[in-house]
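Memo to structure team: turn this sequence into structure tokens by end of day. - J.P.
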Amino acid sequence: MRAREYSAQRRPLGMRMLQAGTPYARRRVTSLASASRQGAVRRTCAEAAGGPMASSAGLALCGQTLVVRGGSRFLAISTASSDDDRVFTYDCSAAEKSAPEDKGENGQPVDKGSDTILASTFSKSGSYFALTDDSKRLILFRTKPWQCLSV
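Reply from structure team:
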């Protein structure tokens, strides 16, 4: 038993980093704000950018279009040299809201979310981009040229 404990502590650093529950355990970093090697160990998930943006941050790449999303916003950048509209931005919090249908116990509308983007994806052809937010909306975009089709 004692020999096992000793060998576990004497493993190379690379092996110790893989063991769950140790101070060396690797953590998933979801923010570019913590991209430095030192910061990557300490700042993870929602704490990386100090709020909800990091917990919903994401990248999507399709053809020559890159989408960066965080919080309620996303930015689409085209690397194609022929595109006139190389950058497109969208803010879900500025999108039209549906009429409040759900009422709480006291008759006040129930808060449906903070418009934080939860997931996004391109169509197989790359002609469309869709996202969903925590207000339970599905928003569809055309990518060439970028245009919001439905909220």
